[in-house]
Design goal:
The structure is a single chain. The longest helix has 25 residues, at 40-64. The protein is mostly helical and 86 residues long. The chain has four helices and no strands. The protein has one domain.
Length: 86
């Protein structure tokens, strides 16, 4: 669930930040920017948004499975051995 505060914040003027990339990664980003006719900022913003969307999906999945019982690792291994899968 996204709050209006954060939604509104996404529509404001871009904010400047200093980010340090590994030299090879920076070179690859510059090449990708040139090939795709996009700026480095556009590429990085898209990657960060995708990462945050994946985090939101993970959090939703954790919440949906919160009522499931926890299994001890040892019990899982024992079950795998007994079923012949290990």
């Amino acid at each position: 669930m996204t709050s209006k505060r954060y939604d509104a914040g996404m529509k404001t003027q871009p904010k400047r930040a200093t980010v340090y990339f590994d030299a090879a990664l920076h070179r690859a980003l510059r090449v990708k920017a040139a090939v795709t006719d996009r700026s480095l900022s556009e590429i990085v913003n898209a990657a960060v948004k995708q990462s945050m969307a994946e985090d939101a999906e993970d959090l939703a999945a954790f919440k949906a499975r919160a009522s499931e019982p926890n299994l001890a690792f040892e019990a899982v291994l024992k079950d795998l051995r007994q079923s012949g899968k290990l």
